[in-house]
Amino acid sequence: MSQHSTSSSASHGDDHDHDIAAHVRTYMIIFGALLVGTILTVAMYYVDFSSMALTVAVALFIASIKAFLVAGYFMHLLSEKKLVYGVLVLSAIFFVALMGLTLWGSNDLPKNSVTKTLYVP
Amino acid sequence: MEIPYTYKARPDTGLYNAKVGIWLFLASEIMLFGALFSAYILLRVSAPVGFWPDVALAWPRGLLNIPIGTFNTAVLITSSVTVVLAWASLKMNNFARFRVYMVITVVCAFAFLGIKSFEYNDKFSHYVVRLKDGKALTGHIEVNGKHPGFWNFQDQWDVAKLADQKVDKIKVEVDPERDIHGHAKKHAGHDHEVREIAVSDIQFLGSYTPSTHPFFAVYFLITALHGLHVLGGALVLGYFAFPGAKMWKSNPEQFINRIEVGGLFWHFVDLVWIFLFPVVYLL
Amino acid sequence: MQSSASHAHTSATDSSHGHAHHEPGFFGKYIFSTDHKVIGIQYGVSSLLFLMFGFLLMLVMRFQLANPGKAIPVVGALLEKVLGEDMAKGGIMGGDLYNSFGAMHGTIMVFLAIVPVLFGAFGNYVTPLQIGAPDMAFPRLNMASFHCYFLGGVVMFASFFTPGGAARSGWTSYSPLASVTDLANRFDGQTYWLMGMVLLITSSLLGSVNFIATIIQLRCRGMSWMRMPFFVWAQFVTGFLLLLAFPPLEAAGLMQLMDNLFGSSFFLPQGMVVNGTALPVSGGGSPLLWQHLFWFLGHPEVYVLILPAIGIVAEVISNNIRKPLWGYKSMVYAAMSIGFLSFIVWAHHMYLTGMGTKVATFFQTTTMMISIPSVIILTALFISLWGGSIRFNSASLFALSFLPMFGIGGLTGLPLGFNASDIFLHDSYYVIGHFHYVVAPGTMFAVFAGIYYWFPKITGRHMNELLGKIHWAGSLFFMNCVFAPMFIQGFKGMSRRMSDGGTTYFGPDAGIGADPGVLGLNKMIFMCAIGLGIAQIPFIINFFSSIFAGKRTTSDNPWQATTLEWATPTPPPHGNFLQEPVAYRGPYEYSVPGAKTDFTPQGDKN
Fold it and tell me: In this predicted structure, what is the pLDDT of residue C3?
């Protein structure tokens, strides 16, 4: 996909047009998938899951699929260069570190700690 | 020397400068919205029980209008498709179609923002009323015949102001009670009972604003920041659709790259909403 | 400054510009320039001015600590006149004024002085030159970044004059204090601080995108990653730290702004009572959240302060020992490890918040781990000296003394990194001694080394060596005199941020049996701080007089250095290089066996 950006002019040969036309079809399919995903997300809201953890897991799972489709196809990440992956992997790691360690730090409190009663009733 | 690789890709990285730049910027945006999501989770997990009137919940649920939110999600997803189709049209040398798709994208963006401000207005007119006997209810209020809202901000009420203005009674269009999942208990229609409450019975009165509960504080902050990104992106894309399109004549390849870079930003904005919508509206 | 005057005249590259190159006027050349060298100088001048301002704030504070309750000579009357009676009644520093000077000293030094001079000034000026690029990848973004920084500085400076005074809750602005310290004014100093920080963070983000993209994309032919000077590697890692660590603080800053302006409760817990009245907020927030988000930036920030400094020291040392750096590759990998690890050590600033043992142990472990690459870098620099033909000039004296100073700073950090010992040392003067050793005789010595080293390239003139050596001797002596006693004070239990100099909680009447000598050290520290200030006078005289009357350089490469910035005309014109540079070898090819001279420049074909 990104090879196209290295071509020197916009008006290239037929095979590029054909490639783009194929990609346009892909975009429309992904669009459909995203709308279906949205409907699914809302539908899940009306299902009574046994635990909050499961509800969260299902919602985030569906959201992740949608995100993968947008990132992979619309943002061309599936055919992107290693450098971009590297940068994104780094920020993903640090994001997880921020969220995970902050939550762990607020929940791993000594037994009978006063902090516990203040913040985790 | 000219600065190299402004639109031609550098051989070893395979990227042109602006693409590296935008992905770096998006990496920092991941951290920004990531911090906000982390804050949301932390605040929710540590919210004291009984802090929200509904069913002794710590955290209000089901307060945001799901059909509207779903529609907004669809609008944003549509704009995501149209912006990538705009880029594809340029690659196929079809400038007219590019412009059409860009216009649709920008229109979708402003539709999203318009719907959002309608939602904001609804929040500013929705109130929590805590009574002295310990009961609490939520709903739209009517004071002296007027409904406070976002656009008439000076009409926001609290207990002190009610006393000041010597109001005896207010009307509350009471919301149906919600269960632990935030679903309204009465599924049949939208019967909202209108109750008259004496001001002397009210202990606390506040609309769904940041100062009423951390949920609203986080909701408004995240959605407003996201909305600012939508606005910024729409302005940039609009610029490229019209005045900035001059570059199509002078340097078509760089122009296509600019659209690609703008599109990447736009997709990121959509990505944030894909996570925002379930987390804030549904969970 | 002369450097930009050469813009029109020596620019041999005009013909290669594809577009019509009209002459920019005064504003285009000096205020709104997109040339990385002009922007670097803009950053340099602004940051050094802020540095001096932050230093003066500290002097007033140290007077108060040495002479609590006494009117400050000259300055006291001025403060009372300008800031009002409630701040400095009778010329005596009030508690609120002390706290605001303390908070702003930290903020200004970190965000308006050190990072802008290291990253904005040296980074901007030298990085494109050292990688053989004509400018930064995004010149207009570079200009925007400077102006955001400048505006942020203006906002921070203006905050002193707002009713209530500047922010006074520490540079760390912990909630809930930061939100309740001044309930009378909505737009108080803290609000200005937050708005200023938003501008500064924006500037950093734009700058870091620029630096990283430039280093990735604009390296000249032959300039592979492992042929880059260590200075460039340091700036590269620093760029990533700024890029990924600042946004959570921006988020936290927005949240605290909402707490202050819109009455939200992001960081305010339930049931808060201030001065006897219940605070009219909803509560339900978490003060811990602010600390986590702040220190998530706060820790990588200190590596932002030290990495470019180490980069400068590496350049100056390698040039003045006339041999390659020992362990270049280890240094590069160590810098990358420091960058990565710095993101997961932050809660060692929060050991006393009541965290559980598991999470505290995690952070203690990563904190111990991060000391390893730091030691690797310092060791490599020390080992490099062995067998070198060391030249002692102003630049190299500062660079060489950086090594033991940073060593002391780093080693004194170890007891703070261990949870158990930190219980005693947290928030004591030991902490102040530790971090100042790293940034004051540490980072600042690197800044001075860089100024003496690159001055000839930027201005075409040498700085005076005698004045430079006096500056060095005075600075080294007085830096140690000011900060070494603080370790003693800290060990003896003296807390930081006490506006009365410690008399209430630590003095002879406090009833805790504190050692009276500890507070007596404050007097010595104050005198030595004055001495430190006086030691800078030769530098200031030297700097300005050399611009106009310094000895002119006789070559483009007066230090006989190998890196590419010395292969340009002096000063470098717009576009930097007269023809496209190529890197034929590594960056530190000094004393190559069989070569004619003791240095083989990176860009020389033969």
Answer: 40
Q: Does the beta carbon of B274 lie under 8 angstroms from any beta carbon of chain A?
A: yes
The CATH code of the domain at B17-55+75-120+213-282 is: 1.20.120.80
Size of interface A-C (CB pairs under 8 A): 55
pTM: 0.92
Interchain pair B30, A92: CB under 8 A? yes
Handedness of CA C361, C363, C364, C368 (dihedral sign): positive
Rounded Cα distance, C400 and C313, in Å:
8
Q: How far apart are CA B99 and CA B119, in angstroms?
A: 30
CB atoms within 10 A of CB C239: 29
Maximal CA-CA distance, chain B = 78
User: How, if at all, do strands B202-207 and B126-131 pair?
Assistant: antiparallel
Q: Write out the residue limits of the CATH 1.20.120.80 domain(s) in chain B.
A: 17-55+75-120+213-282
C344 reaches A (C-beta below 8 A): yes
Cβ-based burial of B153 (10 A; exposed 0-12, middle 13-18, buried ≥19): exposed
Helix intervals (H) in C439-514? 445-459, 465-491, 503-506
Q: pLDDT tens digits, residue range A91-106?
A: 999 999 999 999 998 8
C354:A108 CB<8 A: no
Residue-wise pLDDT tens digits, C454-475 = 999 999 999 999 999 999 999 9
Q: Which ipTM was obtained for this model?
A: 0.92
Which residue in this structure is represented by tokens 């590596």?
A: C303
Nearest-by-Cβ selection for C217 from B10, B29, B212? B10
- A73-77: long-range pairs with CB below 8 Å, 24+: A73/A26, A73/A27, A73/A30, A74/A27, A74/A30, A74/B80, A74/B81, A74/B84, A74/B263, A74/B267, A75/B263, A75/B264, A75/B267, A75/B268, A76/A1, A76/A2
The pLDDT of residue C72 is above 70? yes
A109–C355: do the CB atoms touch at under 8 Å? yes
CA distance B74 to B108: 10
Fold classification of C35-267+284-567 (topology level): Cytochrome C Oxidase; Chain A (1.20.210)
Measure CB to CB from residue A63 to each of B23, B34, B274 and give the nearest one. B274
| Cβ–Cβ contact B235 with C under 8 A | no
Q: Does B8 contact A6 at a Cβ distance shorter than 8 Å?
A: yes
